[in-house]
Amino acid sequence: MTSLFDYLLGLGDDALVAAQRTAEWCARAPQLEEEVALANVALDQLGQARAFLGYAGELEGAGRDEDALAFLRDEAGFRNAQLVELPNGDFGTTVAKTLFLAAYQKLLFSRLARTAEPRLAGIAAKAAKESAFHVSYASAWTIRLGDGTPLSHRRMRDAVEEVWPYTHELFEPWTAPEAGLDPATLREPWLRVVEKVLGEATLSRPQDGWAATGGRHGRHTEWLGPLLAEMQSVHRAHAGARW
Amino acid sequence: MGISAFDALIAADQKIEQKDWMPDGYRASLIRQIAQHAHSEIMGMQPEAAWISRAPSLARKAVLIAKVQDEAGHGLYLYAVAETLGARREDLLDALHEGRQKYLSFINYPTLTWADVGALAWLTDGAAVVNQVSLCRTSFGPYARALVRICREESFHHRQGFDLLHTLSRGTPEQRQSLQEAVDRWWQPALAMFGPPDSKSTHSAASMAWRIKRASNDELRQRFVDLCVPQAKALGVRLPDPALRWNAERGHHDFTPPDYDELMRVVAGHGPRNRQRLAHRRRAHEEGAWVREAAAAHAAKHAAAPGTAAQHASAQEDAAEWPLWEVFVRPRRGVSHVHAGSLQAPDATVAMHSARDLYTRREEGVSLWVVPSRSMAASDPEHKDAYFEPAAGKPYRHASFYPPPEGVEGL
Question: In angstroms, rounded to a whole number, what is the distance separating the alpha carbons of residues A181 and A105?
C-alpha cells in the first residue's frame, strides 16, 4: 500500500513519460493525418499528467506544483511503470506501447472514476474517455499493421514481442487506500481486450517470460535518464525562473 | 462557362469554385501558391517540434504540441484545396522532396534557444497572419474557406508567441538577453516572408489581376512593420534596424528592407538548415512508407465498401496511396451535418479517427460522417442555368405571393 501522493505520482508519471515519448513523433509521423492523431494522443497524456501531478503537489502541501514535480525530480523519484520509458522504435512499436498502456489506463481510470475520493474520481472520469479513444486508435493500427503486408506483419509481431514483458508490471500490487483497487484484477479484462485485437491483427499473444518490474519504486530502465535529462534541461538551467 | 464568364465573376468579386471553368494560368498559379503554402506549414513544424521535448513548463509544452499539430492540420487543409484543382498530394510532396517546389525561407534558420520558439511565433506567425488575413478574400472559394479556418486557428499561434516572450521580458537577466537575441535573429527572416519587392516579384501582377492575391508584397510588409513596433515596445525589445523610425508624412514606419540576395540564396537552397530540413522531411516520408502500404494492403484484403483503397488502387499506379474522403460535421445537436473538408485514409475506420482528430479538435462537432470522395456526385457548373434558373420566376411557390385580405389571421 502506498500513499495517495505516491499513487498520484505514479499515475501522473505514466502519463508524463508517455506524453514525452508520443510527442517525439511530431514532424516525423508516417502520414500527415497521423501527425494530427499522435499529437492528440500526446496532448491527452500531457493533460492527464498535469492533472495528477498538480493534485499530488497540492496534497503534499510543500509548495511543489506540476512543474516542480515534473522538472525537479530525479530518475529515482519517478514512479511510472517502465513500459512508458521504452524508446519509440518504429511506428509499430509505438502502436504496441500505446495499445497496452491505453487498454490498462481505460480499465484503471474507469474503476478509479467510481472511488469515493472525489478529486481522483473526477480526473479519472475525464481520462477514461481519452484512453478509450487511444485504445480505438491503437487497435485500428495494430490490426492494419498486423494484417497488412508481410513486412508490416513481421514488424508488428516484433513490436508486440518486444513490449510484452513490460506489461506485467502494470498489474503488480500497487495501490493507495483511497483507490482501493488491486491492479491484478485488471489483468483478465485487459487480456480480453488485447487478445481480441491481436487476433484480428493475425498475431498471437507472446509467451509470458521475463517481466520488467521496479518502476513504481523508482527503479527504471536505462532509457529514462536521458529522457529526463532532455526534458528537464532548460527548466533546470534557470533555477527559479518563470516561463 | 468560358473566359468571359470567368472574368465577369472575378470582376464582380465572386468566388470561383472547384468545377468552374478557369484559365490554365489561373489554375497553375493557384496550385503553385497553395502548394508552397502547404509545404511551408508542414516544413514549419520542424524548427518548433525540436523544442517540444525541452519546453520548460508543462503548460508551454502543451501549447507547443498543439501549435505544431495545427501546422500539420493546416497543411492538410491546403493539400485538400490543391486536390480540388486536380493536384494530387503525393505529386506535390514529391515536388517538395525533390526541391521542385519551395517553402518559406524562414524555416531554414535554426531555433537556437527557447526564446527562438517565442520569437519565431511572434514574428513569423505574425507575418503569416497579416498575409493570410489578406488572402481570406482570395478569389478561389476552396482556398478562401480554408484560409478563414486557418486564420481563426492561427491567431492563437501568434498570441501565444507574444505571451511566451512577454513572460521572458519580465524574467531573469539571462531570459531577457535571450529574448533580445532571438528577436535579433528572427526580424530579417520575418520581413523576408513577404517575398521580393513588388518591382522584382515575378508572379505578383497576374495573381493580383486574378484576385488570388489581394495586396502586394510591399503593402503587407509595411502593415507588418507598423504592427510590430508598438508590440516590440511592450516587450521592451529593440527591433534590429537602425533606420526604423516613424515617418509622419507617410503615416508609416520607415525601415530597412530585408536582404533580397540572402532571401534568394536561401530559397535556392543555400540557407543554414535547408539541407537538414528537407532531409528530415524526406526521411519521415520514406520511413512511413511501410505503414501507408500496410494500411492500403489491409483495406484491399477487406474491401467491401466502395471507396476503399482496394477499389481506388485499381485506378492508381501507386497501391500505397490512400483515397480521399469528404468529412461532414454536425456542430451541435439539432442541426444538420455540414461539409468540413477532406482527408486521406485507407478505410472508413481510419477516416473516422482522422476526421475526429482533424475537424473536431476544437469542439466543433458532436457527430461525423465520412464519405469516399469518389462516391460523391456533383452538379455540373455547365448546367447551372438549366438547373437553377428555372426556379426563378415561380413566385407562386412562396406564401408571400398570396397576401391575405385585411383582418384575416392565421393564414
Answer: 13
Residues 30-89 of chain B whose Cβ lies under 8 A from any Cβ of chain A = 42, 45-46, 49, 52-62, 65-66, 68-69, 72-73, 75-76, 79
> How distant is the Cα of A195 from the closest Cα of chain B, in angstroms?
19
Distance CA A203, CA A195 (A): 9
Residue B3 near residue B19 (C-beta atoms within 8 A): no
Cβ-based neighbour number of residue A207 at 10 Å? 8
Inter-axis angle of helices B141-169 and B173-192, nearest 10: 160
Angstrom distance (rounded) from CA A105 to CA A124: 9
Per-residue pLDDT of chain A (243 residues), as tens digits, is 899 999 999 999 999 999 999 999 999 999 999 999 999 999 999 999 999 999 999 999 999 999 999 999 999 999 999 999 999 999 999 999 999 999 999 999 999 999 999 999 999 999 999 999 999 999 999 999 999 999 999 999 999 999 999 999 999 999 999 999 999 999 999 999 999 999 999 999 999 999 999 999 999 999 999 999 999 999 999 999 999
What homologous superfamily is domain A4-237 in, according to CATH? Ferritin, core subunit, four-helix bundle (1.20.1260.10)
Look up the pTM and report it.
0.95
Dump pLDDT digits (tens) for B143-187. Answer: 999 999 999 888 899 999 999 999 999 999 999 999 999 999 999
For residue B83, give the nearest of B177, B23, B159, B18 by alpha carbon: B18
ipTM higher than threshold 0.90: yes
Q: How far apart are CA A160 and CA A205, in angstroms?
A: 8
Q: C-alpha angle with apex A159: A154 to A165, nearest 5 degrees?
A: 135
Q: Is B358 in CB contact (< 8 Å) with chain A?
A: yes
Residue B69 near residue B52 (C-beta atoms within 8 A): no
CA distance A45 to A11: 10
User: What CA–CA distance (Å, rounded) separates A148 from A162?
Assistant: 19
Chain B stretch 279-308, residues whose beta carbon is closer than 8 A to a beta carbon of chain A: 280, 283-284, 287-295, 297-298, 301
- Whether residue A24 and residue B53 make contact (CB cut-off 8 A), yes or no, is yes
List beta partners, residue B324.
B344
Q: How distant is the Cα of A113 from the closest Cα of chain B, in angstroms?
A: 23
User: Please, which residues bridge with residue B407 across strands?
Assistant: none
Q: What is the pLDDT of residues B260-275, one digit of tens each?
A: 999 999 999 999 999 9
Nearest residue in chain B measured CA to CA from A26: B49
Q: Give the separation between CA B159 and CA B231, rounded to whole angstroms.
A: 11
Q: What is the largest CA-CA distance in chain B?
A: 82
| Distance (Å, whole) CA A194 – CA B373 | 33
- What is the residue whose three cell numbers read 464568364? B5
Rounded to 5 degrees, φ, ψ at A179 are: -85, -40
> Which of chain A's residues have a Cβ under 8 Å away from the Cβ of B322?
31
Distance from CA of B76 to the nearest CA of A (A): 7
Residue B134: in which H helix or E strand, if any?
helix B126-135
B409 grid coordinates: 389571421
Chain A residues in contact with B46 by the CB 8 A cut-off are 27
CA B345, B350, B352, B355 torsion: positive or negative? negative
